[in-house]
Design a protein that fits this description.
By secondary structure, this protein is α+β, with helices and mostly antiparallel strands. It contains 14 helices and 6 strands.
Length: about 325
């Protein structure tokens, strides 16, 4: 994510960080030094829960951030964000995390809760900036990232089954099924793992891939548990954005029988990114494709149990070396 130097930059960055223009939301952005580390979005609390406040604060502590940005998108009928932001700010500052900025958005106006200059930040707020023409948007688009969706419903609609791609379907049929009695099984699983990394590199460099043969190989081989679990384990703080974009893109074009693995991988990315709402919707997409898909069932239980995203990430990272050893040797 680009450097954020002003409230306008922050307002422009939030939709890119979570994938859509939020409403009725509290967005907490963790900073490590001057860099955006991650962003979490939750429904704006109408009745603040001390346990939820502590959970948000503790998540930032476990993420090893040293500062935070808060952005409150007020629901209709809520006059101000102080009743939520004040206890959250206190909880963060008690844990050594400073609040660099706290913005409140009400309708089409915003104001800073930290700025005391009435000329700079009038109590009535200022008009929302044109995000689409902002410096942040220009830099993100130039880096190959898609524009954020209009709202959560638009993003959910995009996760629905897309228009079939005849060429991709033809290429998928050309990928042979794995024979688990084949002496070269491990070699073919390894080939699929390498293909996943190659596809990720394309998304990291240009934000998309036109290599349908490579996409077909990855989609087909994700049905194998070793390959799927390898793909889940490659997530890092450096590639999580590109990887999320990759799974999202594949989810939009995958034929139904290939959807469940991709949807669960995308759900895991969303959960680690702090967007439980989108993670649940991705799981819905997995169940629409395969009601009995075991990993989707497991993730549903994990999400429902309120596992901290960092605990899920730790479990995944501990499994990954074992998968690598199995595929590639010690």
């Amino acid at each position: 994510m680009t450097t954020l130097t002003s409230p306008h930059d922050l307002l422009s960055a939030v939709p890119f960080l979570i994938g859509y223009h939020p409403e009725n939301s509290l967005v907490v952005i963790a900073l490590a030094g001057e860099s955006v580390d991650m962003a979490m979005r939750v429904d704006f609390p109408l009745d603040p829960d001390p346990e939820q406040i502590d959970a948000l604060a503790n998540h930032l502590v476990k993420d090893s951030c040293d500062a935070a940005l808060l952005v409150s998108y007020l629901p209709a009928g809520v006059s101000g964000a102080d009743y939520v932001v004040a206890p959250l700010s206190e909880a963060l500052e008690m844990r050594g995390i400073s609040i660099r900025e706290s913005l409140e958005i009400k309708g089409e106006r915003w104001r800073s809760l930290l700025c005391q200059d009435k000329e700079c930040c009038p109590k009535a707020g200022s008009a929302m900036p044109d995000i689409s023409s902002s410096r942040v948007a220009a830099e993100q688009v130039a880096a190959g990232r898609r524009l954020p969706f209009r709202d959560l419903d638009s993003l959910k609609a995009a996760l629905a089954e897309g228009k079939p791609d005849p060429q991709l379907k033809k290429l998928l049929k050309q990928v042979p099924d794995l024979d688990y009695q084949d002496s070269e099984l491990r070699l073919k699983q390894r080939e699929a793992a390498v293909a996943t990394i190659e596809l990720l590199k394309e998304f990291e460099i240009q934000g998309y891939s036109e290599n349908k043969a490579l996409i077909a190989l990855v989609l087909a081989r994700l049905e194998d548990l070793q390959v799927r679990d390898y793909a889940m384990g490659i997530t890092t703080s450096e590639n999580i954005e590109a990887l999320g974009n990759m799974w999202f893109s594949l989810l939009r074009i995958a034929p139904k029988q290939y959807v469940a693995p991709v949807a669960t991988l995308y759900a895991a990315i969303c959960y680690e990114n702090g967007d439980g709402t989108l993670a649940q919707r991705a799981l819905d997409r997995a169940f629409e494709a395969d009601l009995a898909y075991p990993l989707a069932k497991l993730l549903r239980r994990v999400f429902a149990a309120g596992w901290p995203p960092e605990s899920f990430a730790q479990m995944r990272s501990e499994l990954h070396p074992k998968i690598c050893a199995s595929l590639f040797g010690e």
